[in-house]
Design a protein that fits this description.
Length: 550
């Protein structure tokens, strides 16, 4: 009876060792669950033999066998996590693997009608087993087979040799515990009527399996995944990484930094020694001042190191634990290529900016040219007022709108009297000056909405929108008198030149007749009417207004 108790204490000692010596992660927790289940079996086997009370004996038997599905479940989960075969944790597969184990444990606890275990001679030191026991054994075998399959997948995959080595340790442990358990069942259950009970077989298998795994943990660092991953990450980073303690002693240096610094773990680090000796550089002095005087602050510097002719970025940050500084981490990054790209980008941006400014200048010039061209297309080059083409386009829309809404409007057609004599007496340049001066005088007599256009030669046409006959006559008289009283001063001519104008005035107030005409035909008809009025004014002696109404 003492064999199982001794094995229990050995297993407990191993449990305490693992718990105390290894950083606890999820993988550790799964192993500790598995290890704890291993401890329960020999303890319960011992406890059964220490009491004569059948109730306590049954409790220990149930506890021992409840630990068996817990043992294989923990082992299976540990296998899945260690090999990375997470697909076995999908819902359907998990239900298939773990629900039967829970049902087996429930059947062991309830023991309905003695289907799990029957006492012999009134106690459970000697006992017989029922179908729930064999169902539990079947579940254990299924978990054993699934574990072997997962291990097989891990061994034939592309895992690194370190992972495969860990999987091989697990395979040995599975085989040992499975073989001893099967031998125990065969000798102490199947052949129990014929052979004396051999104690401690399953417990011995559990112990040997645990010992093998503990050796692997201690020797091969099976559980040091965090440390290994940490070191792998540190060594694969391209930046140089230096970790110092609070006395500036190097405690870690990664592979990227080793070729460039003559430092080893345990050496004292001197920041001044690695910086270029340029006392006039204020950036270096500021960096060193912060590094020395304010160690709790992060500080960094970018510089061109003359020894290696490379741009480097140095970043120093404190390592804080519970509010206290326990060391520093210093990173070194080669930013030569980055600086080259930045300088090139700045240069390209400058070139692009210059090109954009040139394009904007060209665009402005084109815009101004387009405005001038548009202005030239709609204005008369001599007088600056609108030309006949523009007026015709405008009036085609205006007069049709006026007809639609029956808005009165008027058209004035005027001609400078005896203009040919001005050209003959003073020359064409003087004639141009008379025309331009007359246009300016007429503009001052018009309203903001009126449109003045050169109709041709010395003839001008004025569109008076929203104007009835009386208003049109008043405007016409004002224009005529203003032009008549105007004195045109011409260079190199001693006396000023006075002119008069003849005008035809057409007022539109009846919109019922021309409904069938197109805009262009209707406008030509209006021009013809006002032209006749102007012709009549000339025939009647000029310097007068002939008004017609339609």
């Amino acid at each position: 009876m003492w064999v199982d108790l001794i094995l229990f204490f050995v297993l407990f000692a191993l449990f305490a060792y693992i718990f105390a010596s290894v950083t606890i992660t999820n993988l550790h927790k799964l192993y500790l669950l598995f290890h704890f289940a291993m401890m329960l079996w020999p303890f319960c086997q011992f406890a059964i033999k220490t009491t004569g009370n059948p109730t306590f004996q049954l409790f220990y038997v149930k506890l021992a066998f409840v630990s068996s599905p817990l043992l294989t479940t923990g082992w299976l989960l540990f296998t899945i996590f260690l090999t990375g075969q997470s697909k076995f944790l999908r819902r359907k597969i998990s239900l298939f693997l773990f629900v039967p184990a829970l049902l087996a444990a429930l059947g062991i606890i309830v023991n309905p009608n003695g289907w799990f275990v029957h006492p012999v001679n009134g106690g459970y030191i000697q006992r017989t087993y029922g179908p729930i026991f064999w169902f539990n054994i079947t579940i254990l075998m299924i978990h054993f087979i699934v574990s072997l399959y997962i291990i097989y997948l891990a061994l034939v995959s592309d895992n690194r040799p370190r992972i495969k080595k860990q999987v091989m340790h697990m395979l040995r442990g599975v085989l040992v515990i499975a073989i001893f358990t099967l031998v125990d069942i065969f000798l102490n259950v199947v052949l129990s009527p014929y052979l004396p009970v051999i104690p401690g077989m399953a417990s011995l298998g559990i112990l040997l399996s645990a010992i093998m795994f503990v050796i692997a943990i201690h020797r091969d660092k099976v559980f040091d995944i965090v440390t290994i991953a940490h070191q792998d990450i540190i060594d694969t980073i391209e930046h140089g990484i230096l970790v110092l303690d609070d006395n500036e002693i190097v405690v870690e240096i990664n592979q990227s930094l080793l070729p460039h610094m003559n430092l080893r773990i345990g050496d004292r680090f001197n920041m001044v020694a690695i910086l270029p000796h340029e006392p006039a550089d204020g950036h270096i002095e500021c960096f060193l001042h912060t590094y020395r005087e304010r160690p709790l602050e992060r500080t960094e510097i970018e510089l061109l190191h003359p020894r290696i002719n490379r741009y480097i970025s140095i970043h120093a940050a404190p390592i804080m634990v519970s509010g206290l500084m326990v060391g520093r981490i210093i990173t070194f990054q080669d930013i030569t290529e980055l600086r080259r790209l930045i300088d090139e980008t700045i240069l390209q941006n400058k070139i692009l900016q210059e090109r954009n400014e040139e394009l904007i200048k060209i665009q402005t010039e084109l815009s101004q040219t387009n405005r001038k061209l548009n202005q030239m297309a709609i204005t008369d080059s001599l007088t600056g007022c609108y030309n006949r083409h523009y007026l015709t386009q405008q009036l085609e829309n205006e007069v049709m709108k006026n007809r639609r809404y029956q808005i009165s409007f008027a058209i004035l057609l005027l001609d400078i009297d005896f203009f040919k004599l001005v050209n003959d007496n003073y020359g064409h340049l003087a004639g141009d000056e008379v025309i331009c001066n007359t246009v300016e005088v007429i503009k001052h007599s018009l309203r903001r909405t009126d449109i003045l256009a050169r109709y041709g030669g010395e003839e001008f046409i004025i569109y008076l929108p929203n104007t009835d006959e009386s208003q049109a006559k008043v405007l016409a008289e004002r224009i005529k008198s203003t032009v008549e009283s105007n004195k045109v001063v011409i260079e190199n001519i001693t006396q000023s030149v006075s002119i008069t104008i003849s005008m035809g005035l057409l007022s539109i107030k009846d919109f019922s007749v021309e409904n069938i005409l197109s805009p262009k035909s209707y406008l030509n008809d209006l021009f013809e009417s006002v032209d006749k009025a102007l012709y009549q004014a000339k025939n009647e002696g000029r310097n007068r207004i002939i008004s017609v109404v339609r």
